[in-house]
Design goal:
Layout (H helix, E strand, L loop, with lengths): L40 E2 L1 E15 L11 E10 L3 E12 L2 E9 L19 H10 L6 E7 L14 E7 L3 H11 L3 E2 L1 H4 L5 E7 L5 E2 L1 H5 L34 E2 L4 E13 L21 E5 L9 E5 L14 E5 L8
Antiparallel strand pairs: 1-7, 2-3, 2-14, 2-15, 3-13, 4-5, 4-6, 4-8, 6-7, 9-12, 9-14, 10-11, 12-13
């Protein structure tokens, strides 16, 4: 009997090619969901990942076999200092997608903003807002330009990250009035999300550098009597096509890719980070200074990475009406000290 091929399915997902380093450490959000609320509201926020702990909660998903029982869950802590709304931007729909119509900036932006942008001496905010108002009939989408405040988190940097956050709900006119009321003010995570809500999380994953095909693609380690290599791949492909196909697992960059995780549940939004700071502070982060969000499960990225949060693009059908009941949050040191 001849040699029989063992079953060898494709190793590793091709869904995220190319696996190269992300352009920037701040994730891009390419889609904002439509919400049906009457009152306009911001559809996103951002914070810094501090670390993980565990909590005990009462299981409130009706279909779960543990419904009504106390269960232990891993939880991630994100420090969410208030974000400064420093601008408003209006977009119009064209055959080529959304195009920027016009924008308005706050009067006296803080000095830290100079680290991220080259700013003029002064903005004529009133004239800019008037122009925005005149363009409302052709406006399809209104977004705010928001800046993070890392100096209010436990970070050594001062340079803020600047991002757009879309406004959802209500009419365009209502959205404009809402954006106008926020301009130059700070917004907290509490005003955007609520306890128990599901959200999407976008960030850049932890970088792992240049890795071989075994770690990067999960290919089988070859037997030691094989030719030349064990941690390589057995064949680079057929004679024809006469080139190496993109589906072949090769060595290269692993990690530091942009990813989005859907439907992570907010367990708690708190004002004082000391409530969830573990003994001795979080490893590589330290002690939380201000507001925070506690999220069920793990999320991508290392400590101090900027995490962007968004209203869910495809929310689950059944969402418990009341926020989760937390009975205990562990403050034990993760190092066992």
């Amino acid at each position: 009997m001849g040699h029989r091929k063992t079953h060898a399915p494709k190793h590793g997902s091709l869904a995220y090619l190319p696996r190269k380093r992300a352009k920037r450490p701040v994730a891009r959000i390419r889609y904002w969901p439509k919400i049906t609320a009457d009152a306009p509201r911001l559809l996103g926020f951002a914070g810094y990942k501090a670390g993980m702990t565990y909590v005990f909660t009462i299981e409130d998903r009706k279909r779960s076999p543990n419904f009504g029982k106390e269960v232990m869950r891993a939880a991630t802590v994100i420090e969410t200092p208030p974000m400064l709304i420093c601008g408003i931007r209006a977009y119009t729909k064209t055959p080529y997608g959304l195009t920027n119509l016009t924008e308005a900036w706050m009067k006296d932006p803080p000095a830290e903003l100079d680290r991220a942008l080259v700013l003029p001496e002064n903005f004529d905010t009133e004239a800019m807002l008037q122009k925005l108002e005149q363009n409302l009939p052709s406006t399809a989408v209104i977004r705010v330009i928001a800046a993070t405040q890392p100096k209010e988190a436990n970070l050594s940097k001062k340079k803020p990250e600047i991002m757009e956050i879309e406004i959802g709900g209500g009419t365009i006119a209502k959205q404009f009035e809402y954006a106008k009321s926020l301009l130059g003010k700070t917004v907290t995570a509490e005003e955007v999300f609520k306890d128990g809500q599901y959200i999407d999380v976008a960030a850049i994953t932890t970088g792992k550098g240049f890795q071989g095909p075994v770690k990067r693609w999960g290919v089988t380690i070859l037997q030691h009597k094989g030719r030349k290599t064990k941690r390589g791949i057995a064949t680079l492909g057929p004679w024809n096509p006469h080139h190496i196909m993109y589906t072949i697992p090769r060595a290269g960059q692993m990690g530091y890719h942009q990813r989005t995780e859907y439907n992570k549940r907010i367990l708690k939004i708190g004002k004082d980070g000391k409530e969830v700071t573990v003994k001795g502070g979080y490893i590589r982060y330290g002690i939380l200074k201000g507001p925070y969000i506690l999220i069920d499960g793990s999320i991508l990225g290392p400590e101090k990475r900027l995490i962007r949060l968004r209203y869910p693009a495809r929310p689950p059908k059944e969402v418990p009406e009341t926020p989760p009941q937390i009975t205990y949050i562990s403050l034990d040191s993760p190092q066992g000290k």
